[in-house]
Amino acid sequence: MEQDDLASYLPDECAGKCGRKTKTWATYYRCEYCYDTGFCDECVKLVKASKLPFRVCESSHPFLQVYPIDLDMAREGASVDNGLVVPRVEWLDMLRKEWMA
User: Fold this and answer.
1) 57: domain range?
2) Mind listing the pLDDT tens digit for each residue in 9-32?
3) How far apart are the first and last CA of the chain?
4) Which whole-number Å values give the CA distances from 38 to 55, 76, 98, 100, in the listed order?
5) Of 22, 33, 89, which Cα lies nearest the Cα of 64?
6) What pTM, to 2 d.p., does this model score?
7) Could you report the per-residue pLDDT of 67-93, keeping only the tens digit for each?
8) Helix H or strand E segment including 43
9) What is the rounded distance in angstroms from the CA atom of residue 63 to the CA atom of residue 39?
10) Tens digit of pLDDT for each residue in 26-59?
11) For residue 78, what are the CA distances in angstroms to 10, 86, 100?
12) Which of 65, 55, 5 is nearest to 35 (CA)?
């Protein structure tokens, strides 16, 4: 899957106050604590600095950059087969053991 194709699978809008749409983001971050909550490159800075009016997230929450994909990290957990991203079985097993412990 190409980087530009990934953007079509992300939410349409940032959860911050900017209201920017997917195609205008340089990066996109998901909160690891709050359900279905993500911020663009501009608003995640505001959240981390506690300058965004409280909505769901707060500055102490960890964020994961999900766009653009770090290709080296993606290769650790998946392979590409005929354009489809296929998770590596051993990676899924490692996650399963970690989360079930």
Assistant:
1) 1-69
2) 556 678 888 877 777 778 888 888
3) 32
4) 12, 24, 24, 26
5) 33
6) 0.61
7) 877 677 666 667 766 666 677 777 778
8) helix 41-48
9) 9
10) 888 888 888 888 898 899 999 999 888 766 688 8
11) 19, 5, 21
12) 55
At 86 the three-state DSSP class reads: strand
85 and 62 inside one domain: no
CA neighbor of 67 nearest in space, from 35, 85, 41, 87: 41
Burial 45-84 (b: 16+ CB within 10 A, else e): ebbbeeebeeeebeeeeebeeebeeeeeeeeeebeeeeee
The first and second tokens of residue 70, run together, are 């770090």
Kindly report the length of the chain: 101
For residues 77 and 65, state if they share a domain: no
Same domain for 51 and 6: yes
